[in-house]
Amino acid sequence: MSINIVVLYHSSHGSVAAMAHEIAESIEQQGATALLRTFVAKQAHDILITKADLVDCDGLAFGTPTRFGMMAAQAKTFWETTSDLWLKGQLIDKPACVFSSSSSMHGGNEATLLNLSLPLLHHGMMLMGVPYDVPQLLTTETGGTPYGASHVAGSHNNNALSKDEIKICQSVGKRLVDIARKLQ
Predict the structure, then answer these.
(1) Residues β-bridged to residue 150
(2) CA-to-CA distance for 184 and 121, rounded, in angstroms?
(3) Most buried residue, 3, 10, 29, 41, by CB count within 10 Å?
């Protein structure tokens, strides 16, 4: 059976998009299909998320930049339209993970990752963090938390993903596919 994982993100300056693409590439390397989706079409190739995408997927990776320790408004606005899915229990038991980026090391990534988790938990999704068997989680000097993948973009949002951040993003994509396969 094929595995379809939605990689849903909002990106203001490109960091979260870079993370989404790393996660999607890792998903594809596992032989699954990564469906990149956004909340706002900024570029011609962007595909907007639909509720049907969530219902039909086998797993979800969800990320936004941090906004004062919270998800971006574009994401919150979308999740507020999903009550019908919640009432029908259509996302229950789907594996999910979260990812985020901030401009500074203490810019709210962990709080944002927890905030991103809330609608997923309310929908009954199975939230996955980053386990400590991912060695980069112990050595990173930039982003990366047990709550999810993260990135420190710098005060001018010009820091590329570090090698550790890339590896953590890749581990998240691989783990999502592994868990989705086990659930099938």
Answers:
(1) 100
(2) 20
(3) 10
